[in-house]
Amino acid sequence: MPPTPHQGHVVVAPDKFKGTLEGAEVAARIAAGIRRAAPGTEVRELPVADGGEGTLAAALAAGFDRVPAKVAGPTGLPVDAALAVRGDTAVVELAQASGLARLPGGRTAPLAAGSYGVGQLIGRAVSRGAKRIVLGLGGSACTDGGAGMVQALGVSLRDADDVELPPGGAALRRLERIELGPLAGLLTGVEVVVACDVDNPLLGPRGATAVYGPQKGADGDDLVVLEEGLTRFADQVAAVTGRDVRQAPGAGAAGGVGFAALALLGATMRPGIELLLELLGFDEAVRGARLVVTGEGCLDAQTLHGKAPAGVAAAAARAGVRVAAVAGRLELSEPEWRAAGFTAAIALTDLAEQPGDSMTRAGELAEVAGEQLAGALLPA
């Protein structure tokens, strides 16, 4: 049974508002509004993520330790990244090393961008004694099938002249031989779990190249080249491992990094928000709560298919706790968001006095949203 309206705390568990506020900032602002409107209410801030960008920040906000690491960015230039560690669990966010935001000057490199830095982060986690690695996929700048990631972990990818392949998906067309090297020994006793909210296979019309290649700057001939490279890589991986996972759901995630994680790291896949809520201790945080507030930049049809607010709403419902949403924009009708389990939903665009305020004054408006929700849902 849910707690009576006058009992319990409030959990504020939003995802980031992309382009405006990080998840921790959203949580802090909504919480400030709630505390102002309902003095004395205990408010617990627990920013969440679905495995993509913001996963590292959510883990750090939940008490994980930040471990800095300088690794290769998507074009090979060094970037300052980090992983999150608590006990023998490490959280690796692909976007930290190989994300679109890491491209120098924002210039895409669809044929040459790689995932080497992701492998370096995994290697750093293993060297620190991690026995469970949570790999968050999302925001990738590369379409290399995870080739760079496994090269960083000791796998050798060689062409017909016995020369190691350079980074990028285009080079995979020349792949002739794979040597797994020290990979198996490196990951002995290490569980790799991929947080992923897409079910695309590696190849074909729903694959990594066709669906996500254009987002990374690929078009026309580039798409053909990348598909050929991934096909060649999948053929060679199947030959050396004896198993073919190219059609597995999620293999196409992050430019095919999901494929390499499944095929060569022995990873399992979990829905991103489900895994992150478990990792962040959401069930414990919501126990005895009177209200949960979640949100993201845009509450729309995609939200209903595995995005963070829908996952939070489902988890809150299991605990018998009401859940409300704050979003930058609200593109769901009231019947739609109510059917998804939300008691209330507020859009910053509806609070804004001027066009653009929902972006430039997002923090201030998130506080107003928190006040309004407290006034409506937390009677004194």
Automatic annotation (TrEMBL):
Name the Pfam families for this protein. Gly_kinase
Q: Write one Gene Ontology MF term.
A: glycerate kinase activity
Instruction: From the UniProt record, give one GO term of the biological process aspect.
Output: organic acid phosphorylation
Q: Which UniProt keywords apply?
A: Kinase, Transferase
Highest taxon of the source? Bacteria
Family, per the entry? Belongs to the glycerate kinase type-1 family.
What is the name attached to this protein's record?
A: Glycerate kinase
Q: Which organism is it from?
A: Kitasatospora aureofaciens (Streptomyces aureofaciens)
> What lineage does the source organism belong to?
Bacteria, Bacillati, Actinomycetota, Actinomycetes, Kitasatosporales
The record's gene field reads glxK
